[in-house]
Amino acid sequence: MASWGRKIASSGGILAVCVVAGLYITKPERLAPDALEGMIPSTENGARVFSAMGCASCHSAPLGVEYENDALGGGKRFPSPFGTFVAPNISSHPTAGIGTWTDLEIADAVLKGTSPTGEHYYPAFPYATFNKAKLQDIVDLIAHLRSLPAIDTPREAHDLGFPFNMRVSLGGWKLLFVNTDWVVTGDLTPQQEHGRYLVEAMGHCGECHTPRNVLGGSEKTLWLAGAPNPVGKGRIPNITPGEFNWSEADVVEYLTSGFTPEYDSAGGEMADVVENIAKLPSADREAIAAYLQIVPAHSSK
C-alpha cells in the first residue's frame, strides 16, 4: 500500500509540474514596457487605421440604440458555435470604456490579446490578425480612439458555457493558432504587399471568409475560400480566384459604392465593411483588389 501511495504521489507531482509548465508557456504575452517610447502619434493616420480595422463595425451601437457610428459604446451581440460574444465599450469613458487604460495596455490588447489585468481575450476580438499590424499604426489608432466621444454604456458579459468560459485555456489556443506569418508569400509587388497588409493585418477579412476547424482556428490552407455564417444563415462567400471572378476594377467599385458588377448591393455586416473601406484612399482599395487577384484559388467546400 505504501508503494502505491508513493506512486500516486509521484504521479500527482508530475501532473502538477506539467500543469504549472503549461500555464507558464501559455501565459498572456505583453509588449516590452518601453515598446512605445519615442513614438509620436498621428491622429490623421489613426483615423485611417480606425477605418481599415473596422473598429466601428463591431463596437458601435446595436440596432435600436441611437448614437453616432464612431461612438464606441459596444453592445452588439455575435453568436458563434461557442456561445454569444458581446462587443465591449471601447470609448474613452473612464469606467464603462477604456479611458483610463494606458497606451501600452491598449496596444497589448490589440496586438497580444491580453487585458490590463493579465487575462487572455477571446479571439472574437481579432488580435490573431491585428498582431501583424505595424506598431506605429497602433499608436496612431490609440490617439484617434482617445479623440472619440465617451459613452457610458456598461459592458455586458459574454454568454459562454463551460469550458469556453475558461479564459486560461486560450493560452493553448494562441499557441496553436496565433502567429505573425503572412498567408500569401512570394515575390509581391509593392501594391500587392500593401494590399496584403490591409487584408491580412488590418481588415481581418480572413476572420469571416476563411473556414475554421473544430477548435475555432482558421484553416489557412483554405485562405478566403468561404465559410459557414456563424449565425447559421447562409454562407460567407469564397473570394479567391477559384470562384471569385471579379476584375480589379469591380472590386474597387464594390469597396467604394457597395455595388456588385450585377448591380446588387452589399448587405448585412458587409455593408458596414464597405462603409469603412470607402473612407480609405482609393490607392488602398486598389491595393486590396490587386492582392485578391494573387490569393491561391480554391473551390468552395
TrEMBL record:
InterPro entries: Cyt_c-like_dom, Cyt_c-like_dom_sf, Cytochrome_c-type_DH
PROSITE patterns: CYTC
Domain Cytochrome c: 41-149, 190-296
Keyword Kinase: yes
Pfam families found in the cross-reference section: Cytochrom_C
Keyword rRNA processing: no
Transmembrane segments: none
Key words of the record: Heme, Iron, Kinase, Metal-binding, Transferase
MF terms in GO: electron transfer activity; heme binding; kinase activity; metal ion binding
Alphabetized PANTHER family for the sequence: ALCOHOL DEHYDROGENASE CYTOCHROME C SUBUNIT, BLL4482 PROTEIN-RELATED
Protein name: Diacylglycerol kinase
